[in-house]
Amino acid sequence: MTLGQYLTSKSFFKRLALALVIVIAIVFAVLQYLSFATDHGNEITVPDLRKLTEEQVGSKLDELNLEYVLLDTVDYNADFPKYSVVKQDPLPGAKVKDGRKIYIKVNSNGFGDVTVPDLIEKTLRQAEPTLKALGFEIGKKTYKPYLGKDMVLEMSSGGKKLKAGDKLKKSSVIDLVLGDGKVAFEEEVDSTQNENGTQTETENAE
After folding, report:
1. Low complexity composition bias: which ranges (predicted)?
2. CB of 172 closer than 8 Å to CB of 137
3. Does residue 162 sit in the same domain as residue 139?
């Protein structure tokens, strides 16, 4: 039998079909193994753990056969309860395998202390961003006669006068007393008036 006759014979096609069946079976078996090895199709949706306490997180993840790892405590965030989860990784809605660890960060129990900077005789333009960068809030601004306009003369919080180095809770409100910049003008006017008055008196005396 020639090669051409063999390639067109029933025997060749039977063997070719058998080979294809074997290849398909092997591919199917490999895919099944990979699916089993990666737990494909049995993924778990990560729940939203934000605002939950550590105890609540543990209970919730136990039900899903997941674990958690507490990474750190973050600066106090007033939008979240004390000691509750602020951040998590993976994020809510992510698909993970059975037994996966969820990393969390929890809220602290309150604002920490911040040192009041030395801003006396600094301009409002300098003082305001400095205070905000430290986490303070700017409260009432009052003015009193002083040569430098918008220059910080006093700082206070809750009615208590502050000095550089004092400690305040982050997010505290700081009131400012500022210069109105009118002293020089008033002194100049008074000086002119005095000069005019003296001249008048001298002329009358003559």
Report:
1. 192-206
2. yes
3. yes
CB 137 within 8 A of CB 105: no
Residue 193 within any structural domain of the chain: no
Whether residue 113 contacts residue 167, with contact meaning beta carbons closer than 8 Å, is answered with yes
Cα–Cα distance between 52 and 33 in angstroms, integer?
A: 38
- Residue matched to tokens 């660890």: 101
**pLDDT tens digits, one per residue of 19-73:** 888 999 998 888 877 766 655 557 899 999 999 999 999 999 999 999 999 999 9
Question: In the chain, what's the furthest Cα-to-Cα distance?
Answer: 153
**Distance spanning both ends of the chain, measured CA to CA:** 153
Beta-ladder partners of 27: none
Burial tier of 168 (Cβ tally within 10 Å: 0-12, 13-18, 19+): buried
Strand blocks (E) in the chain: 44-45, 67-74, 85-89, 95-96, 101-107, 113-115, 137-144, 152-157, 160-162, 167-169, 173-179
Same-domain status, 177 and 132 = yes
The answer to whether position 198 is within a domain reads: no
Asked if 169 and 119 sit in the same domain, the reply is yes
Q: Give the count of domains, the chain.
A: 3
Q: How far apart are CA 108 and CA 165, in angstroms?
A: 24
E strands of 30-120, at which residues? 44-45, 67-74, 85-89, 95-96, 101-107, 113-115
